Amino acid sequence: MLVIALDALGAAQQQEAAGRLLAAGPQVRAYTPRLFSSSGDRATVLAALGDLADAVRLTDIPAAYPRAARFAGQATTQVRLGADTTVGGAGFTVIAGPCSVEDREQMLQAATAVREAGAHALRGGAYKPRTNPYSFQGLGPAGLELLAEAREATGLPVVSEIVDVRDVERMAAHVDVLQVGARNMQNYPLLRELGRTRLPVLLKRGLAATLDEMLTAAEYLLDGGNEQVVLCERGIRTFESSYRFTLDLAAVTVLRERTHLPVIVDPSHAAGLTDRVIPLALAAAAAGADGIIVESHPDPSRALCDAAQALPTSRLGELMARLEFAVAAAGRVLADAPGRPARDGLVLAGDAVR
Ligand code: PEP
Ligand code: MN
Q1: Among candidate residues 43, 40, 34, 25, the one with its CA nearest the CA of residue 4
Q2: Residue 155 CA to ligand 1 centre (angstroms)
Q3: Mean pLDDT by 10 residues, the chain (354 residues)
Q4: Whose CA is nearest to atom 3 of ligand 1?
Q5: Atom of ligand 1 nearest to the CA of 181
């Protein structure tokens, strides 16, 4: 599919180019007055545009996601995490916290540790999509209250999973980013509804979804006008059963080519066991991810969900210290964070990689 953007043209030329494209044949489709696609070949499209061809941006993509597609030279979109942090800029972003919100003490302890370690945002599920209906399903609205309290106490933005389209308003009042979990990546009514909001969305890759399926899922969000979308590689099902999921880090490099949306990695759900989490997080950073989302619990032995893969909050400092090196390997730095101790003045953020 060829995607055609007219945004470098003036208004009159845009209209002219749009007219020429649409006259070129039924395989041309308009998404906005400035964004078109064609299943025809490049030469036909260029011929239809005539003398306007030079001022038009074209990109070839394998499937139908014109709004998510990256044009040559296009910068990665920056997505807000609360008021002060973004994902997709020069800095690498770390989101950490428990799999699920369990009680006030657990959540506040986790939040304080995440801030003190210098991470950028807090995670915690109030609604848990569990495989087994008898497993802990999350605290629901009470969990959202605790997340809001943790946000208030630390100033950290909060990421939490939405599982039901009816919860959008309530969640929007309590958290900063809505996570769409792997099991809901293809829940199109939910994606449509979130596309109508302007709330940042963290879209996780489905357990057996191809990258193009993930990008077309993101397109549902973008098509509603919501451009605040972060993609998350969290491991996929393969024949290998030695760990929970196969972390597909090649996906980071492919998504980087195909889309302008920022890409983060969840090492925890792929790892399945605590001691594998930091190595996978470092690999994700070195592979060029824009950030990570890591499960971390003050006392993993008491965690009600995903206990085996929880990184004790006491190890978050080690994670952050080692990430400094891994992000430098990818030519990046850790993003500034409210809780990060000031550097000693010799090495400033950015200098490490220049
Ligand atoms: C989670 O983040 O706790 C979670 C359920 O993740 P996923 O949707 O990737 O399984
Ligand atoms: Mn989990």
Answers
A1: 34
A2: 24
A3: 94 95 90 94 94 95 95 95 94 98 98 98 97 96 98 98 97 97 98 98 98 98 97 98 97 98 98 98 98 98 98 98 98 87 44 37
A4: 99
A5: 8
